[in-house]
């Protein structure tokens, strides 16, 4: 095998390595458990895209290593299409997770959450489909997120709870919005009269462990907050991997073209010798 083919094989091996973080990100998204894994958005498609990239990159590596030009050419076309899909997914993910429903609360380390801060697409995903939300709500209630918060013995005085950095689901689903003015009794137990004028969720709050704020808009916003956090982390990993993948792929295209030119020159020279 020519030196250029060795170089092309090495470059395609680097492409293969670049696809590993993409597949791993999809698996990480798909394997989330507990309350933060109740809302599933395009998780398996990311894992499937990563797996396809791995397979195509492996085919390109074998094609270059064994000097199979036809296989290598098919690899270049297939990889270009998959990279385009990956970049489109990243752009879409950044667009739909751009807004945040979190807003700071004076005197609190945690944020409260409202639906209005998220993109319309995300709001429709959770709040626009009652059947989907019922499934997510049951998942959050059964995850034990609020139950674990209620049994946390580190909150001896209210100020200790107020200075805790709660997760979006803990803040949105396990307690009432701060604006309601309820008095702290425990992480999931609050006293006082509802103030619907302050927020519609104030009347939806219940100290019943089976209800809490699972029917609140703030709970939907908390679920979206968890989903947004996951995808923001995934977006960073996908973007870094995609940039490296595009760079190495372009270098691979140049190496493939040089190999083709070298092969044509060698055939031309061999023909002139006879």
Q: How would you characterize the overall build of this protein?
A:
The structure is a single chain. The chain has 274 residues and is mainly alpha-helical. It folds into two domains: 144 residues; 123 residues, no CATH class. The protein is 65% helix and 5% strand. The chain has ten helices and four strands. The chain has a two-stranded antiparallel sheet with strand order 1-2. A two-stranded antiparallel ribbon has the order 3-4. Helix 2 packs antiparallel against helix 3 and helix 3 runs antiparallel to helix 10. The longest helix has 57 residues. The chain is elongated and about 80 Å long.
Describe the protein's topology.
Layout: H1 3-30, H2 43-65, H3 69-96, E1 102-104, E2 111-113, H4 120-127, H5 130-142, H6 145-150, H7 158-162, H8 168-173, E3 183-186, E4 189-191, H9 201-204, H10 217-273
Antiparallel strand pairs: 1-2, 3-4
Give the uncertain stretches in residue-range form: none
Question: What's the overall average pLDDT, rounded?
Answer: 81
Trace the largest sheet across and list its strands. 1-2
- The number of distinct β-strands equals 4
Membrane topology: Multi-pass membrane protein
Transmembrane segments: 7-30, 42-65, 72-96, 236-259
Subcellular location: Membrane
Pfam families: Tetraspanin
């Amino acid at each position: 095998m020519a030196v250029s083919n060795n170089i092309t094989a090495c470059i395609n091996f680097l492409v293969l390595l670049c696809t590993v973080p993409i597949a791993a990100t999809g698996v990480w998204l798909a394997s989330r458990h507990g309350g933060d894994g109740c809302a599933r958005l395009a998780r398996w498609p990311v894992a499937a895209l990563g797996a396809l990239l791995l397979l195509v990159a492996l085919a390109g590596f074998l094609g270059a290593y064994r000097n199979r030009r036809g296989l290598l050419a098919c690899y270049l076309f297939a990889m270009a299409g998959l990279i385009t899909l990956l970049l489109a997914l990243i752009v879409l993910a950044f667009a739909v997770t751009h807004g945040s429903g979190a807003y700071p609360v004076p005197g609190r380390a945690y944020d409260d959450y409202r639906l209005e801060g998220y993109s319309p697409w995300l709001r429709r995903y959770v709040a626009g489909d009652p059947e989907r939300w019922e499934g997510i709500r049951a998942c959050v209630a059964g995850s034990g997120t609020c139950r674990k918060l209620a049994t946390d013995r580190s909150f001896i005085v209210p100020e200790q709870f107020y200075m805790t950095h709660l997760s979006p689901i803990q803040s949105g689903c396990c307690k009432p919005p701060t604006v309601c003015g309820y008095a702290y009794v425990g992480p999931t137990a609050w006293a006082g009269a509802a103030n619907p004028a302050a927020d519609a969720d104030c009347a939806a709050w219940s100290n019943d462990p089976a209800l809490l704020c699972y029917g609140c808009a703030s709970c939907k916003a908390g679920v979206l907050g968890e989903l947004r956090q996951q995808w923001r982390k995934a977006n960073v990993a996908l973007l870094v991997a995609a940039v490296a993948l595009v760079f190495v792929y372009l270098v691979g295209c140049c190496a493939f073209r040089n190999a083709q030119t070298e092969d044509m020159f060698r055939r031309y020279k061999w023909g002139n010798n006879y």
